[in-house]
Amino acid sequence: MVREGPVVVGVDGSAPSLAATRWAAAEASRRRVPLRVLLAYHWRVPWAAFAPGTELAHTAQQLADAQAEGFGQEAAAASPGVEVSTTATLGRPAETLLAAGASAGLLVVGTRGRRTTTGTVLGSVSQQVAAHAACPVAVVRGRTGPAGPVLVGFDASEPARQALELGFVEAASRGCDVRAVRAVDTSVGPPAMGAPPLLHDATEVRRVLFDEAAAQVAAAAAGHPGVGWDFDGVAGDAIGALARRSRQAQLVVVGNRGHGGFAGLLLGSVSLRLLHRADCPVLIARA
Prior knowledge:
Number of domains: 2
CATH superfamily of the largest domain: HUPs
Strand content: 15-25%
CATH class of the largest domain: Alpha Beta
Structural class: alpha/beta
CATH topology of the largest domain: Rossmann fold
Distance between the termini: 9 Å
C-alpha cells in the first residue's frame, strides 16, 4: 500500500533538485496529495551562529524563502492542480528531511546538489535520507520520462516483498507494467585451508530460487489484476542486472535492509549502490 501523507521534496537550488521537484509534483498529482517543497540551509560564516538575529541572517532567510518559492512555482507549473507549499528552514538538509519524513507519504531528493547562495549542499543527503527515512524515498536521477515499465528488484526477503507491492501500486497509478527481476549469484570462493570443497548444482539452485520468486510475484500480481507483469530470473549480480534494465524503465523499486542511526549507513546494499548506477529514478520501499 502507498503510505498516506504529502509528498515532500528536498531542494537545494541545483538542476538535479529542480528535476526532482517536477518529478515529485507529478507523483503528488498521481497520489492526489499535497506537495511540500522543503529547502534546508546552514551557515558557512564561522561567527554567524553567535548572531542569528543580524541583518545577515535575515537576508539569508529571505534568499532561502525566495529560492524555495521559485521551486514551488516550478512544481505548480509542472503539475497544475496540485496543492503546493514551500518551506525554507535553517538546519542540516538530511536531518531536516528525515524529520519531515515522519509525517510524509514519500520523500523525494535529487542525486547530487551544488552549493548555493544560502550555503545549501545536497551532496550525500540522498544516501542518508534513503538509508534512514521512516517513509519511502525516491531518488530522482537519469531519465524522468513516463516510458517503460516499473522495474522491481526482488529477492524474496521481507523488504523485497514490500518493494514488490509498492511496485504494483506505482505501476497501476502510471498505467504501465511491472517487471520483476530476481538475480542469483551462485559462485563461491575457494574453500578454507583444510576444508572440503563446497559442491552444489548451480543450475538447480537457480531454478529452485527462480521458481519460488516467480510464484511470489504471481501471488502479488493477483491483488492487482489490471497490471501486466513479467518475471526475469538472472544469473549474476543484482546491481548490474537492475542497472542495465533501468535503461528501459521509468522507475526502479527496491527494498532496503539498512538499520537505524547514521552509523548504520549500508553503502554496500543493493538499494544504495543502485542510486549511483540506475538510469531512471529509484524508489526505496519502507514498511
